[in-house]
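Quick one: structure for this chain?
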Amino acid sequence: MKKLKAVRIVVKRNKTFDVCTFDKNRTHISSVIVGTGIHDVFKFCLACKYGGAYMKRKHILFFILSITQVLWAQKIGTKIITPFGTARSISVLADNRIFVGTQNDGLYYSPDNGSTWIYLTFPHSLTGMAYKSSSGNLYVDAQYNGLYRSKGGTGNWELVGFQDVEIDQIFESATGNLVCHINAYNPAVYNSVYTFYLSKNNGLNWNYIPSQFSKSLGLGIAVHPNKTIYIGTYQGLYKSTDGESWQFCEPGTVYSTAIQSNGLIYYTTSNEIRNTMDNGSALGIFPLTQSPFVTYKIVRDQQDDLYVQSTNYSESYLYKNTKGSFIWNLLGELNGDNGHTYGKQMQINSFGDIFYLDGGSLYKINRTITKVDDYLNVQVPHQIQLFQNYPNPFNPTTNISFSLNEKTFMKLKIYDSCGKEITTLVNEEKPAGTYSVKFDGNSLSSGVYFYRLQTSHFSQTMKLLLLK
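Got it. Here's what it folds into:
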């Protein structure tokens, strides 16, 4: 039996309690929501076994004397000022560009973590999710007006199908097939309200995929490092290597999935988080919430830390699990206009910044939080990185983004195909962070050019194409 040294209670807005227990070395043993009143806390102390921490009747007095902190759950998430109105969807691509689909203002993207926004010409003002395939094609949902494809992400759009549907997600299988999960306005046309379609030719043609599960959740899809697709459904957790045939893994209603780089799969059910390996065998169960709260969306960052959203559809809370730990720490209550963050509208980039939508507004958590009473620090990039310019090809302007993991003197220059220096975009010392610089090629002729990021110990060159 682990003896308790201290107990911290975190009171949330709906007056439920998170009880956080610590051993004699002040090591965090467990955190759990135990009810809506102090009597529920005592019930927990008397009879509950959780995460290896035991509390027995004889510890009542000790428990009362050792409550070291009572804290209100802090509000987290900062509203981003944007040039558009109501946001309907958010997609964070592998290159960290943020695409936002809007109610009536068209399609926007940000190359620099939401600091600046660029309007992208698109056939419709009502827009949804965005996806970039390994072939470089960009796909954007026009929200019941069809799915559009831009080859190479150049901005030239072609309709590839799916009128009268909302597309929840597009993902790529181990065999290179594209799989599309849709929410059909006219289920008679698309065989079901929630279903899958598959393309074997880069999204030009789509075919219906009959599946053994009747309904799936668009936010419950994740791709394993070996490209196996995992999807949460109302019938359980399923997997597929090609997007056509599906194998049952685990029972239960699965809301969301996230997969760490070592192949460990985490998925959320009504009040729990579970994990399993690729062979489908269950490993652990982590109770997190009590009804009416459900554990909804789960995401992971590049360090394999996990974040999960818990909601009762009027307020939402964010928990974090550090890789290798069995503990889920409450970070705080998500700010919002409606107090309701739809799970599929919570995304994370490679730096660990979390973006979510609430009430049509975009919010960002750009800080690393380890527990509810920590100070919040700005997330520093983990490496120096130069990103592909966007758009590319371009005419006449394009944006070049880069990240610095420390304060350093750096240069960003443009060269022609012969290696002649054209212009210097940046030549100064900059603190750690992510930046975006606009390059105007209006005075240049069409052709291939190069841009180089250089510091005292780093140099990288990439190609850009100007087409007039």
